[in-house]
Amino acid sequence: MKKALKWVIALIILLGIGYFSFGRHEASAKEETLTVGIMAGDKRTDEQWKIIKANAKKEGLNLKIKTFTDYTQPNAALTSGDIDVNAFQHYIFLNDWNKTHKSDIVPVGETIIVAGRLYSDKHKKLSEIPNGGTVAISNSKITQGRTLLLLQAAGLIKIANGVKDPTLKDITDNPKNLQFKEVGTDQLVRVLPEVDLASVDPSFIVGSGRSIKSAIYVRPIDKSQHDGINIIATTKAKKNSQAIKKFVKAYQSKNVADYIDNKSGTGEIAVWKGAPEVK
Fold first, then answer.
1. Per-residue pLDDT at 28
2. Residue 18 within a domain
3. Cβ atoms 85, 205 nearer than 8 A
4. 75 near 66, Cβ under 8 Å?
5. Which residue range forms the structural domain that includes residue 97?
6. Per residue in 123-151, pLDDT tens?
7. CA 168 to CA 6: how far, in whole Å?
8. 3-state class (DSSP) for residue 133
9. Theoretical Cys-Cys bridge with 86: which of 31, 72, 74, 232, CB 3.0 to 4.6 Å?
10. Which of 82, 56, 52 is nearest to 67 (CA)?
11. What is d(CA 102, CA 75) in angstroms, rounded to the nearest whole number?
12. Residue 14 lies in a domain
């Protein structure tokens, strides 16, 4: 009798082990993995993606983050299939990319907008910028266009009417005869001591140990800047996949918005539909 009981107990244990092992395997099999392309950032960027990854995990989605150092890489990686989705560009950049490369990348969700900022190591206000002063701008077409629109908003130059993505050739008025020095986007913060003015992305300002509050001009956010909103993008073939929808939901969450607006220190603003307004 005792021997029979031992066999029954042993069988129950084996069945239990098999059940739970299978259950865990089944749960693991259901979890999808999505590879997300982003631009390399700093610790604050890493913290934001930790929150997004945790949100995705709750939806049964595992996010694999792949970082890039050049703005031409994330879209190329997306069309080649190296990544499934990216989150780094605004509408202007995407539209230009699709037109130039004849690609089918589409936006699937809005994320943040970055208030344009002008920095100077030599001057404390715009009125101090001298005639013939040097302005460092990115040699990247899209980033350069955004900087020129920022300089126009600051009252330093005028751009031809209707031009949304200007180049230096589109400047119609330059009353201070400003001289433009084109450098790599990642070099703008490094040349600040050598020039009178520069527009530098917040990630590079923060990464260099500076504060975004050191800007001598901040462009107010308004509806005219909609094309400058950053987006989540993927290929047309993947846009309706459940994994992509789960990722967008994980990004567009209240805890992510709270981090972006109140804790990141980058000056970025969460702008997706339903994101809390910045007070």
1. 45
2. no
3. no
4. no
5. 33-114+226-270
6. 999 999 999 999 999 998 778 998 999 99
7. 86
8. coil
9. 74
10. 82
11. 12
12. no
Cβ-based neighbours of 195, under 8 Å, separated by 6 or more? 120, 122, 133, 134, 135, 136, 181
Which amino acid is present at 55?
N
Question: DSSP state, 201?
Answer: -
Scored b (16 or more CB within 10 A) or e, 72-96 reads ebbbbbbbeeebbbbbbbbbbbbbe
**Please, what sign has the CA dihedral across residues 185, 224, 49, 33?**
negative
What is the total count of domains within the chain? Answer: 2
Q: What is the CATH number of the domain that holds 90?
A: 3.40.190.10
CA atoms of 267 and 42, how far apart (whole Å): 14
Residue 254 vs residues 35, 78, 212, 229, 245: alpha-carbon distances, Å? 23, 27, 24, 18, 16
The packing angle between helices 91-101 and 141-153, to 10°, is 140
Count of alpha carbons within 13 Å of 46, Cβ hemisphere only? Answer: 3
| Whether 207 contacts 82, CB under 8 Å | no
CB neighbour list of residue 258: distance below 8 Å, 6 or more residues apart: 276
Cα 75 from Cα 78, distance rounded (Å): 5
Say how far apart CA 273 and CA 200 lie, in whole Å: 27
- Rounded (10°) CA dihedral 100, 106, 111, 115: 20
Indicate whether 77 belongs to any domain.
yes
Phi first, then psi: what are they for 253, rounded to 5°? -115, 160
3-state SS, one letter per residue, for 67-123:
EECCCCHHHHHHHHCCCCEEEEEEHHHHHHHHHHHCCCEEEEEECEEECCEEECCCC
Give per-residue pLDDT as tens, 201-256.
887 888 888 988 899 999 988 888 898 899 999 999 999 999 999 999 999 999 99
